[in-house]
Write a structure and sequence with these properties.
Chain lengths: 547, 547
């Protein structure tokens, strides 16, 4: 990890500063004769309430960023290489009936059987992105029969940002729950930035290799070639990148379909390939060279994230001919990748009004034979720059419910500037909300436990538990304290919104108490028309709030 | 507007500080021999781009809050009183075939015919909340065949806040687009606070009168009575309140259905009535006295907002028996109100996971014969206190698409504390997003114009226009300037995210330019396979970015 200028990313804050009364636990699971240790975060609650264990993306804590994270998967990969036929992809093993350590590990995180995970990967309905050169990775799954995942984009540009900041953003994104990150860096430090990120990332890292390829030809798009591109892939695969966005579906004949659009081509990668096609009047070299790309990727187990270079950039352009033509081609490429046992997910839009969202999901499932969908938003309106984490969380939650496996976050800075740390957090939280709302709507096993635990804490005025069970305890506590700062207010049996007199939760307690102390259920009390009981209640329980 | 301590709400900032290059226009519309002047906000754009006129809720500008707003409707109401039969409701006129000034005015805001408005009100499918004692009101419509509206709750509590702050919040909420406001004040200054709000509100004002009734009996719920309640209604109707939330559907027999819930009764009004029912072992006096309430309300044209006192307070309690039992009763009460020609809307939940949202809408339309639905959120998950403007904007957008007429905002402080000015704005903007996304999904006439204008500005690098067309120009500009502060950056043909080299929008321009300069459409160029043209392009257009 050498480079010219010294890079010293700050050591991240202790986990407990962000999540009070949480600590990481390691769940032991069997894998053949071995035992794997799988991380969860345990949230301790007050009194008799049992602790709640939640999925954890934060990775090993307390490591020096200059050392990187411990290489968890190193022994598994070393062992596997001994009998490898040159294809190291999880799909390759899955199809031969082999349950890898990665599958067992990820199955434990999801609470399902390793065999189910194997079958989903073999079928192509889930991917387990895990480059063999990224041993620091904690294996995870992307597929619609698992928890909905989210991705955070980070990366510097020629205009702004440094390596230190990007490593810090990585740590910040996974702190709040990002399941993968994409390094979208451009500019001169691209290789070094990526190295720092990979060595410190417990989550899969994706990139868009065409950006670096373009740097290598000083931005002259027409000088791009398959050879240069493969060389770039090799460089990044060697570093350990887990998935590549590759815009192989931007075909020459689709480019003119975008000329009539309100906002043309808005994908960076898509526009680069479109311009290359026009300049050469030849078919996209990523399409014509797709088999060669597959051959490279299976040696490392890099997964495809087939890019939607022609995604709509505005409501006006949603679900148009260009977009769906490309999607068909992505389906064709999926079948080719699967012939090589290379894992595939499919990128999706973009800007789509609510009533057109489901069509995207349905067409994707059909065209791409249920390969996992990975969507950016979609944004459900164009009128709110500065709030596109919200315009898009709406679309993301819906498409997640419909079946999208991973949601690429959008920050408040979308369309306006590069996200800073606050924007990264705001984007991640908005997307954790969307993903969790989707898990609930899908009836995902266990998803509602956290909602129920939090609502129960709320109802019982366990303020600290309510904060600590939330996605962002710091903010919940801070907002509470703005209105009622005293410590005593956090044990009060009322809240700042209504004051003691109007507290509906307190009244419900009274209703229950009434039923309990009378030795009858409230239903019976009412059905039998026991007026005398209500008179007793008047005498003893007339005050809502008893200090 | 006399009271003991002097109240001097600050004069609000000039509209143009929030909306640069906007100014208010008055559109003249004919009403019989008269002409009405209906406000819109005109957004001026750069160069040849035509200005965009948008719906405007901000009311007359530059008034002294101590004087209140001018009484726009005063002459209309005075004239109408001359031949009144004692029922002044818009529904009463609509059903007799009369198009009122209010209907003409609101029709112009919506871009529909006054006759259509009349027919919708007569049918009960829309309401035009407009107390004859609130002449400052600018008439507007709530109904699912019109633009989706939003409501902002303000109001002090015993614990916090002052009259000045509440008037400021009103002005702030309508600045950012709130279509109605509800004054949920409790505590001692309740009458004076409401008076200040009404005299300064160009939008309908709603209240929950049971709160004030409870103040009158010093919080002793069991001492509430129909007489006291009617007295309170009269007091508030005289002040000019436009709609009352009345929890007449909380029946005695429904209360025990909530005992098994995770979070019991969470509506303040609902819990007060539930406790009253238990204490007296009698039916809810709002239900038994409903006809008397109707008789009072039609004299002022106060609209019902039939409260959902048994709405679910958590995901676990969504769509349960208690909730839907109450909804059936609200349908029964709607029919009674309509017999009196009293306008009605129906309040809805609450906390509902995405897959259960549509059932709420479908049942409401059926049970309440298409009376407008007015929902709080719904929140689609319980796990994100501090971000419930987002958890609920997801549900609000969806239910708006399905047919809800007005969305009650939820602020980031929900469940935690009272909203301050920033929270009010955050809540309003999140809900403007939800409402607009719903309008787009419903294919509402003209809704997409603003999206298209903004996306075109974005694509053409008209940064100022992009900011000014957005829901919140200040924030959009501020976010842009964080990355690229120089003034020159706002005329630059690239943005801070990608820098000049990677700008996809610039590349699309090149694609179009290519087609244009060659005198052929891009399609023809490609279909005819004119390789020489692509060679020319290479020579002349190789650089993406020409300064």
């Amino acid at each position: 990890m050498s480079q010219e200028t010294p890079v010293v990313p700050p050591t991240p804050r202790a986990l407990e500063e962000s999540f009070p009364r949480s600590h990481k636990i390691q769940v032991e699971v069997e894998h053949g004769a071995a035992r794997l240790r799988v991380p969860m975060r345990r949230i301790h609650l007050d009194g008799d309430a049992p602790p709640l264990d939640v999925y954890d993306t934060t990775g090993p804590q307390g490591c020096d960023p200059r050392e990187g994270l411990p290489p968890l998967r190193e022994p598994w990969i070393r062992e596997r290489r001994k009998s490898s036929d040159g294809n190291l992809s999880q799909m390759h093993y899955a199809r031969r009936g082999v349950v890898t350590e990665e599958m067992t590990y990820a199955a434990a995180r999801e609470g399902v059987s390793p065999e189910f995970v194997r079958a989903e990967i073999a079928r192509g309905r889930a991917i387990l992105p895990a480059n063999v050169k990224h041993p620091e990775l904690e294996p995870m799954l992307i597929g619609r029969n698992f928890l909905v995942k989210i991705n955070a984009n980070i990366g510097n540009s020629a205009v702004s940002s440094s390596i230190e900041e990007e490593v810090e953003k990585l740590q910040w994104a996974i702190r709040w729950g990002s399941d993968t990150i994409m390094d979208l860096s451009t500019g001169s430090d691209i290789h070094a930035t990526r190295e720092w990120i990979l060595r410190n990332s417990p989550v899969p890292v994706g990139t868009v290799p065409i950006y670096q390829a373009l740097e290598k030809v000083d931005g002259r798009i027409e000088e791009l070639s398959l050879e240069l591109f493969l060389e770039t892939l090799e460089e990044q695969a060697e570093q350990g990148v887990d998935y590549f966005t590759i815009h192989a579906g931007v075909l020459l004949r689709y480019v003119p379909l975008t000329a009539k659009r309100l906002t043309g081509i808005v994908s960076r990668g898509g526009s680069i390939l479109a311009k290359w096609c026009l300049a050469h009047h030849e078919e996209n070299f990523l399409y014509t060279g797709f088999e060669e790309i597959c051959k490279l990727m299976k040696r490392y187990d890099v997964s495809f994230s087939l890019g939607d270079g022609l995604r709509p950039g505005s409501i006006a352009d949603a679900n148009d001919e260009a977009q769906f033509a490309e999607l068909e081609t992505l389906g064709e490429l999926t079948r080719i990748a699967w012939e090589h046992d290379v894992q595939v997910m499919i990128e999706g839009p973009g800007h789509v009004p609510m009533h057109l969202i489901k069509e995207n999901m349905d067409k994707q499932l059909e065209a791409c034979q249920e390969a996992p969908f990975y969507t950016l938003g979609p944004l459900t309106t164009d009128v709110a720059p500065g709030y596109d984490h919200i315009t898009s969380a709406i679309g993301a939650a819906m498409i997640g419910w419909y079946g999208t496996a991973m949601l690429c976050y959008v920050t408040p800075k979308e369309h306006l500037g590069l996200p800073n740390k606050k924007d990264v957090k705001d984007g991640v939280i908005a997307y954790k909300i969307a993903a969790h709302a989707a898990d609930l709507a899908k009836g995902h096993r266990g998803a509602q436990e956290r909602d129920d635990a939090l609502s129960k804490a709320r109802f019982e005025f366990r303020w600290e538990d309510q904060f600590n069970l939330s996605l962002d305890p710091e903010t919940a506590r801070e907002f509470h304290d703005e209105t009622l700062p005293a410590e005593g207010a956090k044990t009060a049996h009322f809240c700042s919104m209504c004051g003691p007199q109007f507290c509906s939760m307190k009244i419900t307690e009274d209703v229950r108490e009434y039923a309990r102390t009378k030795g009858v259920t409230a239903e019976e009390a009412l059905e039998e028309g026991m007026r005398e009981k209500s008179e007793e209640f008047l005498e003893t329980g007339g005050e809502v709030y008893r200090p």
